[in-house]
Amino acid sequence: GDSVTQMEGPVTLSEEAFLTINCTYTATGYPSLFWYVQYPGEGLQLLLKATKADDKGSNKGFEATYRKETTSFHLEKGSVQVSDSAVYFCALLIIQGAQKLVFGQGTRLTINP
Amino acid sequence: KAGVTQTPRYLIKTRGQQVTLSCSPISGHRSVSWYQQTPGQGLQFLFEYFSETQRNKGNFPGRFSGRQFSNSRSEMNVSTLELGDSALYLCASSSSSFTAYEQYFGPGTRLTVT
């Protein structure tokens, strides 16, 4: 079935470090891919998306490229800030007469000053 | 535009009771989905409603049900609560156009079953 696998956390970095959070997926068809972020005590916020192969989603310095050949959608940021500390979820959207998001397990990111 | 709102934000219930959670989608959005978030199982899809019809349902027992009203507001109900139902319940809304299938989430309702 459809599934998403994220790199295990937690991930701890220093401010201004380079960030990569790996995400791979298994899906039939051509799903849209998303990264969501969850801050403590809050719901999920859409961070970025890509709807087809080779699309690059970007927002707030974060980027991810939809790689069909490697079934991956890795999240990257060149210089992280303390305010980026949160849990990040990779997800794919299945549309089969209805919408359904399938999420990875989440990666907790902590940025130290 | 106002975001997705969920009420109540926090609930404490006893085993065997039932609970109803409410979700108001973003204005103009016709699709409402519900997800359960727990530390052990992560984020799991419960069901999706569009124009008052349930279009998809996740792998949850029949104790979990929902409905959608003509104004797109949605409720989910859990009957005969069990300890394992303690979770953050998230509602998400989406518009119906193909190019805008992003789902926007509310802050969630944290349910604690004792």
Question: What's a quick, concise take on this entry?
Answer:
The complex is a heterodimer of chains A (113) and B (114). With 113 residues, chain A is mainly beta. Helix content of chain A is 0%, strand content 54%.
Give the secondary structure arrangement, pairings included:
The complex is a heterodimer of chains A (113) and B (114).
Chain A: E1 3-6, E2 11-14, E3 19-21, E4 23-26, E5 32-38, E6 44-50, E7 56-59, E8 62-65, E9 75-77, E10 86-95, E11 99-103, E12 107-112
Parallel strand pairs in A: 2-12
Antiparallel strand pairs in A: 1-4, 3-9, 5-6, 5-10, 7-8, 8-9, 10-11, 10-12
Chain B: E1 5-7, E2 10-13, E3 19-24, E4 31-38, E5 42-50, E6 53-57, E7 64-68, E8 74-78, E9 87-94, E10 104-105, E11 109-113
Parallel strand pairs in B: 2-11
Antiparallel strand pairs in B: 1-3, 3-8, 4-5, 4-9, 5-6, 7-8, 9-10, 9-11
Share of residues in helices of chain A: under 10%
Helix coverage percent of residues of chain B?
under 10%
Shape of chain B: globular
Strand count, sense and barrel status of the largest sheet of chain B are: 7 strands, mixed
Uncertain regions spanning at least 5 consecutive residues of chain B = none
Count of helix runs of chain B? 0
Strand content of chain A: over 45%
The percentage of residues in β strands of chain B lies in over 45%
Number of strands of chain B: 11
The protein's oligomeric status is heterodimer
Number of strands of chain A: 12
The succession of helices and strands of chain A, N to C, reads EEEEEEEEEEEE
Structure description:
The complex is a heterodimer of chains A (113) and B (114). The mean pLDDT of chain A is 93. The termini of chain A are far apart. Chain A has 113 residues and is mainly β. Helix content of chain A is 0%, strand content 54%. With 114 residues, chain B is mainly beta. In chain B, strand 4 (31-38) and strand 5 (42-50) form a beta hairpin. The model of chain B has no long low-confidence stretch (mean pLDDT 93). Chain B has strands spanning 5-7, 10-13, 19-24, 31-38, 42-50, 53-57, 64-68, 74-78, 87-94, 104-105, 109-113.
